[in-house]
C-alpha cells in the first residue's frame, strides 16, 4: 500500500483521485472510485440546481460508505450559477473534502474552512498554487499542459510543472494531466507529488456514466487526438479532436470571436455526445493521455492495477537499478 501526506489528509487508501468532470462526475462513478479506495468528486455544476446536488450526494451515500468529495468550479460566465447556494448544499450535506478550480476561491475557501471542510484547489501554474496556499487551502492539484479541460496559458507540461511546484509548495500536492497507470503514479511521486488526479482515464471505466461508444473512442484515440480551442481568447481548453473542434480551431485562425462559435461550443451539445455516443455531436473534454488508455476496466480493477504496477516498479525495477560500487582492488 502506498501512503502519502495526501492519503492521510483526506482519509483514503490509495493516492489516486478522480477529479471533477462536467457531465461525468456523477454518483455511480464517484461511489465506484470511493469503493476502490481512491477519492472521487461529484461535479456540482453537472447538477441543474443546488437541490439536485443535495440529492446526488445522498444517492452517492447510498452506494458507498467511503469518503468522497464534491468539485466546485468557479469560471467566468455571462449568467453565473448560484455558487453560494451550491456551496451551502455541499456544507449542509456533510461533505468533508472539496475540489475547487477556476477563479480566486477565497470566499469559498473561508466558508468551507469555517465548517471543517478540506479544500483541494486545482491550478495550472506555480504562482497560482502559491496564491492558493496563502489563501489557506489544504492541498493543491497541479495541472500540466497535457490535461483535458483548461491547461492555463503558460503551456508548461507536467514534467516541469510538478517539480517546480513541489520545490515551493509546503502543503500536499497531487499531480494532474497525463496520468493513466502505475508508471505515471511512480513518476508523479518521484517528481514531488503526493498522488495523481485522473479524469480521462476514469471516463473509460465500466461505471463511467457516458455512452459506451465514447469510451471506445477514447480507447481507439491516440495521444494526438486533441485540439486546443479558445486559444485566441486566452481561455484555452483541451478537447477531443472531432469535426466540431477542428472547425472551431480553423475559425479562430481566421479571427472568429466567441459570438461566432458560441453555437458550436454550447455545453448542451457536449452533453449530447455522452448521451448519444456520437463523438461529432459537440465539444467534449479529453486529454493527450488517450494514447495510454487501452481498455475499459471497472474502477476497482483500474485502481488496484495502478497501485500494483506502481509497487512493482518501485520494488523491482527501480530498486534493482541501485548497484553498490565494487571497491577498487588495493594496488
TrEMBL record:
One MF annotation (Gene Ontology) recorded for this entry: NADH dehydrogenase (quinone) (non-electrogenic) activity
Enzyme Commission number, as recorded: 1.6.5.9
Flavoprotein among keywords: yes
Protein keywords: Dioxygenase, Flavoprotein, FMN, Oxidoreductase
Alphabetized InterPro entries for the sequence: Aldolase_TIM (IPR013785), NMO (IPR004136)
Pfam families: NMO (PF03060)
Domain of life: Bacteria
Key word Flavoprotein present: yes
UniProt name for this protein: NAD(P)H-dependent flavin oxidoreductase YrpB (Nitropropane dioxygenase family)
Organism from which the protein derives: Bradyrhizobium yuanmingense
Amino acid at each position: 500500500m502506498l501512503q502519502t501526506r495526501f492519503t492521510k489528509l483526506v482519509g483514503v487508501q490509495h493516492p489516486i483521485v478522480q477529479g471533477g468532470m462536467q457531465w461525468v462526475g456523477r454518483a455511480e462513478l464517484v461511489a465506484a472510485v470511493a469503493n476502490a479506495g481512491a477519492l472521487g468528486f461529484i461535479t456540482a455544476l453537472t447538477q441543474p440546481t443546488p437541490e439536485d446536488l443535495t440529492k446526488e450526494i445522498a444517492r452517492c451515500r447510498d452506494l458507498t460508505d467511503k469518503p468522497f468529495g464534491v468539485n466546485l468550479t468557479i469560471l467566468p460566465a455571462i449568467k453565473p450559477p448560484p455558487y453560494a447556494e451550491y456551496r451551502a448544499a455541499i456544507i449542509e450535506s456533510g461533505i468533508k473534502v472539496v475540489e475547487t478550480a477556476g477563479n480566486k476561491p477565497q470566499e469559498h475557501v473561508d466558508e468551507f474552512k469555517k465548517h471543517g471542510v478540506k479544500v483541494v484547489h486545482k491550478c495550472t501554474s506555480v504562482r497560482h498554487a502559491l496564491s492558493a496556499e496563502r489563501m489557506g487551502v489544504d492541498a493543491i492539484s497541479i495541472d500540466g499542459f497535457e490535461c483535458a479541460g483548461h491547461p492555463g496559458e503558460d503551456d508548461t507540461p507536467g514534467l516541469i510543472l510538478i517539480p517546480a511546484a513541489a520545490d515551493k509548495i509546503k502543503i500536499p500536492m497531487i499531480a494532474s494531466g497525463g496520468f493513466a497507470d502505475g508508471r505515471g503514479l511512480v513518476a508523479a511521486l518521484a517528481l514531488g507529488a503526493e498522488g495523481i488526479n485522473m479524469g480521462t482515464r476514469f471516463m473509460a471505466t465500466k461505471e463511467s456514466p457516458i455512452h459506451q461508444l465514447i469510451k471506445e473512442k477514447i480507447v481507439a484515440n491516440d495521444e494526438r487526438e486533441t485540439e486546443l480551442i479558445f486559444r485566441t481568447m486566452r481561455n484555452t481548453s483541451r478537447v477531443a479532436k472531432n469535426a466540431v473542434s477542428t472547425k472551431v480551431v480553423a475559425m479562430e485562425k481566421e479571427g472568429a470571436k466567441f459570438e461566432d462559435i458560441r453555437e458550436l461550443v454550447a455545453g448542451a451539445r457536449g452533453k449530447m455526445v455522452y448521451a448519444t455516443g456520437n463523438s461529432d455531436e459537440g465539444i467534449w473534454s479529453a486529454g493527450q493521455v488517450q494514447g495510454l488508455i487501452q481498455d475499459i476496466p471497472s474502477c476497482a480493477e483500474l485502481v488496484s492495477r495502478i497501485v500494483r504496477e506502481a509497487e512493482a516498479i518501485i520494488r523491482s525495477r527501480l530498486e534493482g537499478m541501485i548497484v553498490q560500487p565494487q571497491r577498487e582492488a588495493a594496488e
